[in-house]
Amino acid sequence: MFAVSVLVIAGGITATVLQDGFNLGIxxxxxxxxxxxxxxxxxxxxxxxTDDVTINxxxxxxxxxxxxxxxxxxxxxxxxxxxxxxxxxxxLNDIEGISTQLQxxxxxxxxLVVAGLKYPQELTxxxxxxxxxxxxxxxxxxxxxxxxxxxxxxxxxxxxxxSAFHQEYLVRTEDPTGDQKDNLEKSIRMLLEKAFGEGTxxxxxxxYVGPRFSQxxxxxxISLTLLALVLILVYIWFRFKFGYAISAIAAxxxxxxxxxxxIGAVQLEVSTTTIAAVLTxxxxxxxxxxxxFDRIRENEGLLQGRDIDEIINISITQSLSRTLIxxxxxxLAVVALYSxxxxxxxxxxxxxxxxxxxxxxxxxxxxxxxxxGWRRSREKRVRLKKGLSPVPSKEELERKKTAETPAEKRExxxxxxxxxxxxxxxxxxxxxxxxxxxxxx
Length: 441
Prior knowledge:
Elements: H1 2-18, E1 23-24, E2 31-38, E3 41-47, E4 52-58, E5 61-68, E6 71-78, H2 85-93, E7 98-102, E8 121-123, E9 128-131, H3 143-149, E10 157-160, E11 168-174, H4 181-196, E12 201-209, H5 211-239, H6 242-265, E13 269-270, H7 272-302, H8 308-340, H9 344-385, H10 394-402, H11 406-418, H12 432-440
Parallel strand pairs: 1-13
Antiparallel strand pairs: 2-11, 2-12, 3-7, 3-9, 4-5, 4-8, 5-6, 10-11
Helix pairs in contact: 1-6, 5-6, 5-7, 6-7, 6-9, 7-8, 7-9, 8-9
């Protein structure tokens, strides 16, 4: 099993290197991340009055506010009441000074209206556009077209958000210098609108992280992970013995390496969520390992005289049902998160699925064999100090097996205590008054 683990770790590292390293998220890489949706223009609206007029999309409604000398007047048009763009624009036209122009079929559903960061937007003499998402599942812009449109920006990372036909994407671009935020935002919008039509790009989310913050966050994440491993080492050393601590840390390091290899191989985004998943699996795997180690320590007292490999095998067998039931129960919840979740939750659940499987495997096939090797090495050193051969002979093993164990001795004591006691008759010499009384009788 050591060979299998080495092959898996080596394969993950190789796959990560061949794909130019990890897919670092915005948390660990300076740059801009935007969530954009390519949505056709549903209608445009203009205002030619003297008041201040804004429109907004909120709570499945189109809300219009008119601010004038007489105060604020609010008009709310729920999509459930105005189910088509035709009826919605007709209601807007009834507001004094507002006029609209449909650019799609009047029967288009109003629930397709897309909200974004541009809302609330002010209506002026210049047309303001209201976008609708694509609803044709057979005809939509694919991700390769988006990547091709942004080719001039270098190699930005693009991924689909939600259903592909909704044409919503997460675009990530690097900014090593830390002063290109505005230029990057303009470039993304300009290139996408040039490829798919003016006014069709709706920015739904925009995040920017500078190089200093990303570097500090990466250093802190690595430091906290290493600190957690050191504290675990100290705890297990105090709670058990040093050999147990070394075995547990080796198993945890094994789990982390396999998880990172998987993340790099499939190019999952490395973010603070990924760090949270890794730390969660460290705790989960450690708990499973400690359960087995506690059983090993208990059996060492109960099964004295047995060889250590036999004690470890018995301990693993005794705790195996608990290990499998716990892992399968946890997997049921995590698989549900992966199946029904989206975005960050889906990636987090996938990391946990891999971590739970690897953590269960390492507790049995990595931590316990390393403990066995540690104990064998220690026994060898003790025998050499005593002038004995490094490996016990067959005669020694036979004597060890046939020797009465403390448990057997306790059973012998119990049997002797349970047996009825026989009190022998003892002739004693009587003295004084008791002797005279006996003579009178």
